[in-house]
Each structure stands twice: as structure tokens, then as C-alpha cells.
Amino acid sequence: MTSCRPEEIAPSQVADEPAHDRRVPAVEPPLPAWLVLGAAAAWRLLTIALVLALIVLLASRLRVVLLPVFFAVLLATLIVPPVKWLERHGVPHRLAAWCVLSVTATLTVLLVTLLSTALIDEAGALRSTLAGGVDRIARWFVDGPLHLQQSQVDGYVSQIRAEFRANGSRLLHGAVNTAPLAIEVSVGALLTVVLAFFFVHDGERIVKAGIDLAPPGRRPLLGELARRVWLTLTSYGRGTVANGAVNAALMALGLTLIGVPLVVPIAALTLLGGFVPVLGAFASGGIAAVIALAENGPRAALLVVVLTTVIHTVEGYLVGPLVLGRAVHLNPLAVLFAVAVGSTVAGVMGAIIAVPLTAAAVSALAAFREHSRTPVSSGHSPPSLTDGTTDIYG
To answer: 353: which residues sit within 8 A by CB, 6+ positions away?
Structure first.
């Protein structure tokens, strides 16, 4: 009996096999295109979110170093123009930087001392004013349009005062426990001053040394990015100080005319609130309205609210565009989103640094897009970063 190898089976034998014994390989249907694209975008977004989370975590651990670096850059943008002015009048560069920085630090210490003294001197008057204001508000709830019961209002007032007395010891205990924070702030302030001096004195060489670490083909792009970020932070620093000064002057003038106490501390708070766009003006105005309500009644509080609205309008439509210019042009919605994210991640400091960092990132992204369309010549050297006379619109 002869046997046939598999390759010698006749075609007729294959045809005689039952149909159910044939094995057809299963073919999976292709995934929808939207699902493939969505999955690809999802893992990329997750990777970006993870990297951002790690950056935020690392920045929070290094805040004692990173925050002074950021504030030193802003301080350098403010003191570069007077340093250049002294240089044009024959003062050596290093001596000019030291003189301007010393005068700036001295004026800052004097301003803080004067504000603290004014606040301490008026603390007793403010305490009695608030106590009388609480009684006035309580009477308004009884005699006003609400017509609440006197016993009910007295119960609410007693409860509020009890809460303040109960939390007083907690606040004092918390102030004692903030000694490490005070040390951290002091070290950060000293580091900011030292870094600001080196940024003014050797900033251009520091940036050039960092750019030279990159491949030659990337150096023109990095130089343009550094220039755009510097100009953006310069416009933000100078514009914010000018904007805050105008807001503080208008607030002080309005509060004086209305007759609200604590004009100087509220004006200083308005100046500092300029570093938190949109929300800072309303926060300082809200505090002023509460003091006016306690001291002068609802009409004065309403006038303070109107004054705050006018100041915010002047800031948003007149002073802001003039002093900040196009270099820090951000949509108000982007500003609010940046402040909200910054305050959520890092509290008050996050709200302060969120807007300038966002503006710098937008400027860097714009420079990158322009460079990708029209690459800069490899022979182009990075422009001067510390030149206070640079035309930011050129």
C-alpha cells in the first residue's frame, strides 16, 4: 500500500473534504478612525499632564530658590533703566548697579516700616470702628426693610463676636508658628537682592553662556526666545508698578473724599493688589467697602464699591493698555484662568506669578512659531537682554 505525502494529495481529495472541516482565519473588524485618534491623543495628553505635575511638584519643593529667581528677574527689569542712566553719566556699571539696588532696597524697607507704623497706630481706632459698625449694621437689620427681630439679630451678633474671641488665640498661636515662614521669607528676600544684582551686572553673559550650551543651529532660536521673554517680563514689571501706583493714588483720593479711615494702608494694599490682575483691585476695594460700611454706613460703602468699579475700568481700558502695551496682551479670560490655576496650585504666590509666567510662555510660543516659518540666520547673535533702551516693538 503506497502512502502519499501531504504535498502529493490530489486536488480531487481536497474537494471531497466536508465544508465544515475548513478553517477560515478570523479577521477582526478595523477600529473606527475617531477611536484610534482619540486614544493616541489621550495618552499624549496624559503624558503632558504627568510631566506638568512633576514640574509643579519639583517647583513647590524648590520654591525657596525659584521664587527669588523670578522676583529677581522682575526687580532687574525695574532697575535696569536707572543703571543705564548712571552709566551714560560716567558711573561704572558695577557701582551703578549697587547704588540703584541699595536705594531700591532702602526705599522698600522705609515704605514697609511706614505702612506698618500707620497700621499699628490706627489698629485701636479700627477695632472700635468695627465694633460700632457691627452695632450699626445690627440696627439696620432691625429698623431697615428686613424688619428682623431684635433678639434674633442680637443672637447672631453675639455668635459672631464669640467666634472672633475663640479664634483669637488660634491666630496668635499661628503667628508664633510662622517663625519658619518668616525665616524663609527673609532668606528669599536676601537671595532676591543678590540675584537681582548679578542679573543686572552679568545678565547678558549668563544668558549667552546658557545659549552656547545648545547646538549651533538652535542658538538663534534660543536667543530670540530669551529676548521675547525678557521684554515681556520687562513690560509686565514696569507696567504693573505704574498701574498699581495709579490705582493706589485714585483709591487714596476717593477714600479721602468719602471720609473712610485707614487710607494709607488701603492704598498700599491696592498697590500690592496690582500684581494680581482683576482680582487684586476688587479684593482691596472689598476691604475698603467693609471699613466704610462699619465707619460711615451703607451709603459710603456703596460709594466705595462705585469707586472700585471706576478704578478697575480705568485700569482695564486706559492705564493697562498704555503701560503694559502689546508685549503683555492677554485676554481677560486667560488672565482669570491663570490667576485661578496659580492660586489653586501655590496660593497667593501662585496668583502673583501666574500672569507674568503665562505672558512669557505666550511670547515664547509666538517666537517659536515665527522662527519655524522664517528661520533666523545662523550668524545672527542674540540681542542685548539688559539694554533698557531696546525697542520692544521693533
So the answer is: 67, 70, 342, 346
